């Protein structure tokens, strides 16, 4: 029996590419050499990552596309309207990465409140050996943490910061049943009441620039912004302006708007910490994500229910 063709769109985890090659007929989409109509017609299944995705022009070229398996919980790189219009199914990789992304949020909170990366650079640069003290920073334990997006990852962040004696508030479109954290129905109000605002909402058009100048102003000169979601959620120019005018206390970012290009204005500040989008980047979690992508494809081909379908409206 011939292996099922699977179209890879964008770079993937090497282990996932290897398993796609072993188990399926992996074909790599090359934007510079578009598929012939014959080759395009053979594709029922595509695999991509959250940040690359399938855009409408590619979806249009694939008349028999039935399933897009997305490596990542965020699927904002895909044109979901174009997929929904054709009834094409989409899967993502939720839950398996919650712990690592929440750990990353914790790392950024501690790094930004305490300026740990800058303090370490100070040691390496000889500042300590020269007899100088590193400037005092801000206490994280016991602070008030506002979570924008109390979903699965937000809930894991809440559990962790509670262990540090923090009070947790959150804002969502609707209150979350069973959450012990306090719901705040306005994002500006959440920012005003929080020492740090942690972003864990999905990316995409519905959350674009949700964290704008007004929200940053409400967070205030001692406030810290942490983003482990998507760079698009934050108005980056407003963030830079707030940092430059000391209207915001600091930021810890795992994501920026135009990855991997980090604005120079974010890199030269001791109170800003930028990670290279490593939220889910551990061997264990990436292996779990890979296995979930493959399990969804296998389930689809076996005519079984998808494990983690995305509800497309
Ligand atoms: C990955 C992510 O870095 O799950 C997501 O939405 O952003 C990350 O886990 C990404 O999908 C891999 O390219």
Automatic annotation (TrEMBL):
Keyword Oxidoreductase in record: yes
Domain D-isomer specific 2-hydroxyacid dehydrogenase NAD-binding: 106-279
InterPro entries: D-isomer_2-hydroxyacid_DH (IPR050223), D-isomer_2_OHA_DH_cat_dom (IPR006139), D-isomer_DH_CS1 (IPR029752), D-isomer_DH_NAD-bd (IPR006140), NAD(P)-bd_dom_sf (IPR036291)
Keyword Kinase set for record: no
Signal peptide residues on this chain, from the entry's feature table: none
Annotated D-isomer specific 2-hydroxyacid dehydrogenase catalytic domain residues: 37-310
Keyword annotations: NAD, Oxidoreductase
Family per similarity comment: Belongs to the D-isomer specific 2-hydroxyacid dehydrogenase family.
Protein's UniProt name: 2-hydroxyacid dehydrogenase
């Amino acid at each position: 029996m011939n292996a099922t063709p699977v179209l890879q769109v964008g770079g993937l985890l090497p282990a996932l590419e290897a398993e796609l090659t072993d188990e399926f007929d992996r074909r790599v989409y090359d934007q510079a050499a578009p598929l012939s109509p014959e080759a395009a017609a053979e594709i029922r299944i595509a695999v991509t990552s959250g940040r690359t995705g399938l855009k409408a022009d590619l979806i249009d070229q694939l008349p028999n596309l039935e399933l897009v398996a997305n490596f990542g919980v965020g699927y904002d790189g895909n044109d979901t309207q174009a997929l929904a219009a054709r009834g094409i199914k989409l899967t993502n990789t939720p839950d398996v990465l919650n712990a690592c992304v929440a750990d990353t949020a914790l790392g950024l909170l501690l790094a930004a409140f305490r300026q740990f990366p800058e303090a370490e650079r100070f040691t390496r640069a000889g500042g300590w050996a020269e007899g100088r003290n590193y400037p005092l920073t801000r206490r994280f334990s016991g602070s008030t943490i506002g979570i924008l997006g109390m979903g699965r990852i937000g809930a894991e962040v809440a559990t962790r910061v509670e262990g540090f004696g923090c009070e947790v508030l959150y804002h969502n479109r609707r209150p979350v049943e069973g959450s012990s954290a306090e719901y705040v129905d306005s994002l500006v109000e959440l920012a005003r009441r929080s020492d740090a605002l942690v972003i864990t909402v999905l990316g995409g058009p519905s959350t674009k620039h949700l964290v704008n100048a007004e929200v940053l102003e409400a967070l205030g000169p001692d406030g810290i912004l942490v983003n482990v979601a998507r760079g698009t959620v934050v108005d980056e120019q407003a963030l830079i302006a707030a940092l430059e005018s000391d209207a915001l206390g600091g930021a810890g970012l795992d994501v920026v708007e135009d990855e991997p290009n980090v604005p120079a204005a974010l890199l030269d500040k001791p109170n800003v910490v930028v990670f290279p989008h490593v939220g889910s980047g551990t061997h264990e979690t990436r292996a779990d994500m890979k296995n979930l992508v493959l399990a969804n494809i296998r389930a689809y081909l076996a005519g079984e229910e998808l494990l983690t379908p995305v509800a497309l409206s």
